[in-house]
Amino acid sequence: METTKVMGKVHSLESFGAADGPGLRYVVFLQGCHMRCKYCHNPETWSLEGGEEWSAKDLFDKVYRYKNYWKNGGGITVSGGEPLLQIDFLIEFFKLAKAKGVHTTIDTAGNPFTMEEPFISKFNELMEVTDLFMLDIKEMDEAKHKELTKWTNSNIIAMAKYLSDNGKAMWIRHVLVPDLTDGEKELNELKALIDELKTVEKVEILPYHTLGLFKWENIGVDYPLKESVPPTLEQIKKAEQILGITKGLNLKTADKNPDFDPNHSCSGISNSMKK
Hints:
single chain; TIM Barrel; eight-stranded mixed beta sheet; 8 helices; globular
């Protein structure tokens, strides 16, 4: 198929990701993110500069060599950083994947989403070549979301509803930080949103951890959650109960997901990023 020469900025690559969508997956982490989440485990992906430049074709040719490992619904996941910041590259890359019948997943926090042009036309094109959207909803209360990330969440919630209205499969993820993102009111609001959406296949609680703290030190930025601790098992179970999560089960198909790693999240909360 004919492609244009859109270049993408890639932060890193992971050949065998087991917590980035269904099955075993090749994960591409793109460079760049506007959000400044207080618990981010990959702050080195924030900058819009840097990263290694790849054409969509060259990257796909490299990734596709691993196709024999993509069993049980596996395929390719693009994460970040925030992949929607490089939507032109993403469209071209996923078109190549779909031409080969590869399952495609985007791991996103939804921050760039807007109903305005030219983004929405590009997003519509992207939906046509994306099988699954893994959406990280960080906080339902808008003021708290701004305090947590420096950005509003209104467009993120709008994106979830737009995906639902267009019949696109979603997994919803929420990072649980004690005394920060574990409020009962906000979790109940998240449950109400999930119940409103028609295409959510799975909901996951991602327990906060501090394994990425050293990365903040490496880039010379003060880590704002030094006093925070990971949630207890009781706190996790309480959040799962509010959200109606049955451990390890898919909401729509009840498929087991034994490879899920609760410490691996979307939108820059990854523990093992390998070149």
